[in-house]
Amino acid sequence: MWDTKPKTVETYRAWVLNFGRGLRAAVSFNEMSQVILEPSLFVLPHSPRYCYQLYLRNHAYLPVMHIPTLLTAGKEPTPKATYFLGLTVYQTEAYAALKYGCLHLESLPVAVDISNAQSCTLPEDQPLWQMIAMSAFSYENQKIPVLDLAALFSAELRQEVS
Questions:
Q1: What is the pTM of this model?
Q2: What is the largest CA-CA distance in the chain?
Q3: Cα–Cα distance between 86 and 96 in angstroms, integer?
Q4: CB 11 within 8 A of CB 137
Q5: Which candidate, 2, 9, 25, places its Cα nearest to that of 116?
């Protein structure tokens, strides 16, 4: 008959994202919808420097985040060209409609298997990680925050960093 005991998960799949300037973070394996090469982006006037571009997908404009600029309160220059764009998918709550957002990437994402043994504290050098990351793990001698995409693309974050 059916085994009703939940299985213990030993490893989790994630994408490690390289934002450049030594900054990396991860998203769950099912949160990265696709990587777009050399995307056409639109500039949104009078918007924050960390999110001043939009990507047009299926007749909808999606926000494009530049994480280094967000974490440095606009002191980090935004890229002149974007060669890799991560299209992410998330939900604000269980059973809610899917939402999409984009992330500037310095290189292609790397698929990794992580375990609970790799868990660690969030990087201390960037206090904003507390708002946009739900946890962290150690990978290649670096603390990798796991992004909370709903928090990253939220109105609360915009109010906090404005």
A1: 0.88
A2: 61
A3: 22
A4: no
A5: 9
Cβ atoms of 122 and 136 within 8 Å: the answer is: yes
Q: Number of helices and strands (H, E) in the chain?
A: 4, 12
Burial of 151 (0-12, 13-18, 19+ CB in 10 A): middle
> Does residue 60 contact residue 73 with C-beta atoms inside 8 Å?
no
117, amino acid identity = A
Provide the b/e sequence for 76-93 (b: ≥16 CB within 10 Å): beeeeebebbbbbbbeee
In tens, the pLDDT along 90-142 reads: 999 999 999 999 999 999 999 999 999 999 999 998 889 999 999 999 999 99
What are the backbone dihedrals phi and psi of residue 74, each rounded to the nearest 5 degrees, phi first? 85, 0
